[in-house]
Design a protein that fits this description.
Blueprint (H helix, E strand, L loop, with lengths): L1 H41 L12 H17 L18 H23 L20 H35 L3 H17 L5 H21 L4 H21 L6
């Protein structure tokens, strides 16, 4: 009896450790890719414009997330790549998520400004997009591949999957999972300044909540995220101020 109990306790103790290691592997790979990109760019080995800085980190992180899940015996379905119950409803679900995000971005500043003054996101790295139709179209086309899809793989599909196993899948665990991944998602957008980190924190909360409500289907959130990027590029092209 003592042997069985010991084995069970060991399994309980090691599972969170394995999950934490999985998370650290993905973010270590992503961080290393970011540093290597900076190093190579500074020496002229590659040319990465300011607006594309960090794209290798996102792509490397997504590949690492897929690799970790597969290495643990999982499948792409574990990352949220599941067929929706009805494809016809997907555009409407994505539109609903996008509207929720727009509403949140409009209301959060009103609430936050009652306590602290928050600057607008620092979007100076995208100055070349303002008034430049060709650059705006190019950015809108490339963002799904370099941001929307890989970010959703990392933060919603992978990170939320691992955090759900740590915090549990009840309401309290779901809330903790959404909030923690949103904090991480917001922090990695540090290049946008405090305002940008708050904006992406809100985005992470909306996207994460939507991911759970949609039955952990990544396609729906990817579509909403991509539509959000189109609005983002439109704002950059028009030189409009951002919500936060």
């Amino acid at each position: 009896m003592s042997t069985v109990s010991h084995t069970s306790n060991t399994s309980i103790m090691t599972k969170p450790t394995e999950l934490f290691i999985d998370i650290m592997i993905v973010f270590a790979v992503s961080g290393l890719a970011f540093l290597l990109e900076d190093f190579a760019n500074a020496r002229g080995w590659i040319v990465v414009g300011a607006e594309a800085r960090g794209f290798t980190a996102v792509l490397a992180g997504a590949l690492a997330a897929v690799g970790v899940v597969l290495a643990r015996g999982g499948t792409l379905a574990d990352l949220g790549f599941r067929q929706p119950k009805r494809w016809a409803t997907v555009p409407f679900q994505a539109a609903g998520i996008l509207l929720a995000f727009i509403a949140a971005e409009a209301l959060v500043p009103l609430f936050v400004s009652a306590f602290i003054s928050v600057p607008e996101p620092d979007m100076s790295r995208y100055d070349s997009i303002s008034g430049n139709m060709a650059a705006a179209i190019a950015l809108a086309l490339i963002l799904p591949l370099t941001a929307s899809i890989p970010e959703e793989i990392i933060y919603r599909g992978f990170l939320m999957g691992r955090l759900s196993e740590i915090f549990g899948r009840d309401k309290g665990g779901a809330a903790a999972t959404v909030f923690v991944q949103a904090l991480v998602f917001g922090s990695i957008h540090f290049q946008w300044g405090i305002g940008g980190m708050i904006m992406t924190l809100v985005m992470g909360i909306v996207w994460g909540t939507a991911y759970l409500l949609c039955g952990r289907n990544l396609w729906i959130v990817i579509l909403a995220h991509s539509a959000g990027h189109i609005l983002f590029v439109t704002q950059l092209y028009l030189g409009a101020s951002f919500t936060i």
